[in-house]
Each structure stands twice: as C-alpha cells, then as structure tokens.
Amino acid sequence: MQFLQILIDGFAISSLYGLGAIGFTLIFGVSGVLNLSHGAIMVSAAVVAWAVAGSLNAGPYLGALAGVAASVVIAFATYLLVVRPIQTSRRIPREEKEIFVLTGTLLWGIMLQEAIAYFFTSNPKTVRPLIAGVVNIIGVRTPNQEILTAVLSWLVIGALWLLVNRTRQGKTLLAASINPRGLTLLGFELSSIYLFVWGLYGLLAGIAGVLLGAFLGVSSDNVGTLTASAFSIVVLGGLGSVSGSLLGAYVVGYLETITAYVISPSIRTIPVLLLLVLVVYLRPQGLLGRR
Amino acid sequence: MQLPGKHAAVLSLALAVTVAPGLARAAEPIKIGVIAEVSSITGAAIPQAAKLAADEINAAGGVNGRMIEIVEYDDHNSAADAVRAFQRAANQDKVHAVIASYVSEVVLALEPWSGRLKMPMITPGAASDVISQRVHDDYDNLKYTFHGYLASTFLSDSVCDGLKVAAVDGLHMKTAVVMSEDAAWTIPLDAEYLKCLPKIGLTVLDHIRLSPDTTDFTPVFNKIEALKPDLIVTGISHVGVQPTVQWHDQQVPIPMIGISSQATSSTFYKDTNGATEGVIYQTVSAPDVAVTPKMIPFTNAFVKRFGVTPAYCGYTTYDEVYFIADAIKRAGSTEPDKLVAALETTSWQGTIGKTEFYGRDHAFTHAMKVSPEYVSGLLVQWQNGKQMTVWPTEIANAKLTFPSFIKLPAK
C-alpha cells in the first residue's frame, strides 16, 4: 500500500516540479538568463488566484485565470524592467552582464516576496481546488485535485512539446537556443523572440504556481525554496535541456517522496541536495546536458 | 505691593523658565515598544491590539496625564532583528517597557537583553516554559522578563482538561497521536502531552514532530491514519494553513484537536478556504463567549477597526498595555526596578481573566497564574465559518460537530 501511495504522490509532485522547472530551463536555453525570481513569480500567481477566487468571490476558475494572467504580466515586467535594461546597457561590461542579471532577478524576486508579505501577510494561502473531493485508487485515497495537477501538468508539457517541435514559432525558439547569431543573420528579430519566450515562461510558471497553490498551498516564505528547487532540478537534468529537466523533476520528486514516507518528512530535501553535490562532482553537465 | 512693569516681566520669565521643564516632564509620553512579526496573522494582532488599548487609555486621559505612545518594530520573525529592535527601543527610542513577540525563540533571544538593559519586557504569546524557568533560575538578572501567556506545560494541561470532557467522556475516544511542529515551545508542550493524555484515558499511539518547513503533509497524515487513532492532538503555530487544508482535502477521517495558533484569528477561515471547518483549538479567549465582561467589547472594537477577530495574542497584548499602565500608575514611576516590583503585584481583570504572576519562589517565576480563578482554557471549534466555544460546558455556546469525512469511534 505504501508503495502505491509513494507512486501516486510522487507522480503528482514530480509532474508539478517538471512544469515549474521547464519554464526556468526554457528561459535559460533561449536567452541565457538564470531567472532567480522564478519562485516569486510562481507564488505571485498562486496568491493572485487565491485573492481573486476568495476575496472577490470570482470562483476557482476565474481565480486561476487571473493568477496565470498575473504571472504573464510579472514575467514581462521581469524581462522589460530588470533583464533587458541590463542586457542592453553600455555601462555594464559584457562579461559582467550575467552576474548583473543574476543579482537583478534575485533582488526583483525579494521585492516581489516582500510585496506579497506586506499586502497579503506571509501566512500560506491555498487556492480553492478546481475539483474538490477524493477518489479511491486501489485503496489509496487520492484528492481529485492531485490527479488534476498531474494531468494538467502533462497536458501543458505536451502542448509545449507540440509548440516547439511542430510550429514555426517554436522552431525559432529552438534555433535561438542553438545559434542566436545565425538566427539574426537570417533576419529574425531576437528581441521579439525573447519577448515571446518570456510570455511563454510566464504562462508555464503561472500554471505551475496556481496548481501548487491548490495542491499544497504557498506562502511568501516559499519563494527561495521554489527557486532553489527549480534550480536543483535544472542543474541535475542539465542546464537548458528540457527533457533533462523533466527527468530531473522525476528524480527529485520521487527521491523526496520516498524520503518523506520511508525516513521522515523533516529531511525530505536532504537526499536531493546530496545527489546534486554528487552530480556536480561526477557529471557537471547534468544527466542529459550537453558539454 | 505693586511691582513695576519691568520687574513683573522678569519675574514671569523666571517663573516660566523654572516651571516649564516640570510641565514638559509631566506631559512626556509613556513609551511602550512593541516588537512582532507584523506580516503574519498572529504577529499582526500584537501592534494592532496595543494601539487599540493605548488609544482607549489616552482617550480617558492617559496615565496621570501622560499619554501612552506605542513604538512599533517589525522583527520579521528573526531573533537577530528582534534583538536589534530591542536595543534601539531601549537605547535610542527610550521606551519604558517592551511587549515582544509570540515566538518563543525570539523571546528567549530577547530575555538576556531585557536583563542587560534593565528593560521590563512582557511576551503576549510565546509559550516555552524556559522563559519563566530562566527568571526563576537567575532572578536578579532576568527579573525584567514577564511571561504574559500560558507556559507550554499549562497549555498541554488545559488541552487535556478539555479532552477529558469533550473527547474521552463525550465521544468515547481512547487513542491519540500527538502531532507537533519542531520548535522551542513544543518541547515542554509535548512532554506534558505525553504525561497528561494517558492520565485522562487516552493511549498515545505515536508522537510526531514536524519540521516547520513542511509543505506536503500527506506522508504525515498517512502514517497517522495507518495507526487508526481516535484523534490527532496538535501543537502547531508556525504551520497551520497547509496541514489544515491538506487534512480537509485528503479527507483524513480523524479529528484534529489541540493548539493551533493560526486558527485563533478569523482570517484563518479565508486562508484555508473553509478547510478549518471542524478543527478544534485551545485558547484563553473566544470572540463569542463572555469569559469576562471585557472580552466581547474588545473583540468588537478590534473587528470594527481591523476587520478581523484578534488572534490569541491580541487579547493578551491589549491586557498587557493596560496593566503596564496600571503598574506605572501604582509605582508612580517608569524606573525599571520600581516598574518590575509593581508588575509583580499586578492583579488585573482583563479580557482573558485575572492576570497575576507567580512569584520568585515558584518554578515558573513571572509566568501567568493558571486556574479558573485567574486565566484558564477554552476549546473552540470552527463551525459554519464561526469560532464556537465547545468547552467548558458551563459557558459553551455550541456542541461538537464534525465534517462528514470524520469517523468517530462507535459508542
């Protein structure tokens, strides 16, 4: 029974981790930005969904939509107010730009975190579940929301796969991640590709945030942990590799769930961190990363 | 005798110079520093209640003509920030007393500073037994600290008293699992739970301590459910929303009863989307029952001003501002040692009961006296979005009722 419980819970949380991390890796792959405000954007989406669904009595669906919309807006703001000014600045030396972007997004994330705590308190919020109730899966009582979380995560991941591999716009993203200069020479406007990828990122982070808010609940205190978790998954899977991130998400999700059930929930994240150290030593490019 | 005009002017000026500083001193405000984590529901109630009490006292003329001024500091739930705020309050802002935090770790960090800076300090919500035990062990240095809320051991005893009537006698419950967060205040709480629960007839099947960082409680609830206890006895304050929502969403069929600090504020219902329905928590104050004549008027004034019912430490903070003012009036001074001596003889009928402190010889020096004569506990249950008192039976205004997914033991 415990095996089945671990299988189900691990699958749901891993799918959600995958969805959260995939946007993070996409931004890095296409524009070379490590966005350290990732956790703050996810939490903002969940808190907006909670506020709109609860305080404004708009219902869970409208709330969820508002949360995702907020995430897209904040993602654009992150790019236009923080990342792009640094990238286009002539006063910041080229070799220092990455570190400036890293610091800029980190500080932006802290500003978002403090704003959430100020306006909505740091108490955790739980987004109203889109489907309430539980079902019994071979003796394991599973909340419907948990199943929905896994299904929606995979639908979105599937849609992203179709977009990247089957559409012209998506293929441009792929090209931008491989050879941005070549793309520019072919007459593509890189800045509009970047805008598109940040919008896509906002969508992915927003959906992941709202689902997380409905599944486990979020608070402004979780911002750092969420960024760190996405970062760990992406490094484990290989920076910039989408399939690597998905594999990383499942390794992290299942390792955490097994630890929580078999050893103790209090040390849930420790084996993952140890594994990360090992990977950095033995295979620095990550599980599926290219050298 | 008639003074020439010039002399009269000089005399008036001399009089003004001599008397004015005295007048200025008389009007000097009494400053009370308030240190709390204002972005949390529980912590926010502390400065809010303090301001409410200060405004009422000032509207009634202050303390011997001196107004009360509340100086607020946000400690962000960090002991280091709290210590800096405390030092600033004492050295720079020159406050006369401090009301500090609902977090035991923060109060334990401030306690030595209260002694070093000779600054009277009261905590309105921290529970660790160690706060008052330290005062007992090192009275001369630490006598400036007062424990303005129930010590953890007293909290456990109060929960056990309530469970005896409500769960053991009323619902024929026989077994329990203790589930507490890992924090300073729950160490003595759990130790006492493990002693008092068997005494009232509840066998403790397991004792689980959670990391306050836990976000997924599914493994915890699964482990508990496998043991088939009749109830979960809680000790949670830093966590609250997530275990409650997951308990509800996963339809864990076991009632949760115990300390759940966040559940004491009415915003908890909104934060949990109503998942708190059926949760029972111990407290010394409830918004709906007149434990004392001051309780409901205070609750109403608080709701009118801040839009939510006060968390548990709102009630204690409100009383504390009043009895600090009373102690200053009785001491006739804000001088620390005189103020401490006056606080030690406090007998204040406030919102939660009569506050008096145990003396130097008691193991819990400067902790609040706990008994029906002074301050004692209630069990409150969330029912249809309202906090309803279900124990003690004499003052209860509702009977226990549970959500449909809860399975009660057969009678």
Commentary on this structure:
The complex is a heterodimer of chains A (291) and B (411). Chain A has 291 residues and is an all-alpha fold. Chain A has one domain: ABC transporter involved in vitamin B12 uptake, BtuC, CATH 1.10.3470. Chain A is 74% helix and 3% strand. Chain A contains 11 helices and 2 strands, in the order H-H-H-H-E-E-H-H-H-H-H-H-H. Chain A has helices at 2-31, 38-54, 60-88, 97-120, 144-166, 168-178, 180-185, 190-215, 223-237, 242-263, 270-282; strands spanning 134-137, 140-143. A two-stranded antiparallel sheet of chain A has the order 1-2. In chain A, a hairpin with a 2-residue loop joins strand 1 and strand 2. In chain A, helix 3 (60-88) runs antiparallel to helix 8 and helix 9 packs across helix 10. Chain B has 411 residues and is α/β, with parallel strands linked by helices. Chain B folds into 2 domains: 26-150 and 293-355, Response regulator (Rossmann fold, 3-Layer(aba) Sandwich), CATH 3.40.50.2300; 153-283 and 377-391, 3-Layer(aba) Sandwich (Rossmann fold). Chain B has 14 helices and 14 strands. Chain B has helices at 5-27, 41-59, 79-91, 104-116, 129-137, 139-142, 152-171, 186-199, 218-227, 241-249, 267-271, 295-306, 312-331, 336-344, and strands spanning 30-36, 68-74, 97-100, 121-123, 145-147, 175-181, 203-210, 231-236, 256-260, 280-283, 348-349, 354-355, 378-383, 386-391. Chain B has a 7-stranded mixed beta sheet with strand order 7-6-8-9-10-13-14, with helices on both faces. A 5-stranded parallel beta sheet of chain B has the order 2-1-3-4-5, with helices on both faces. In chain B, helix 3 (79-91) packs parallel to helix 4 (104-116). The longest helix of chain B is centred in the first third of the chain and has 23 residues, at 5-27. The model of chain B is unreliable at 1-5 and 15-25 (pLDDT under 50).
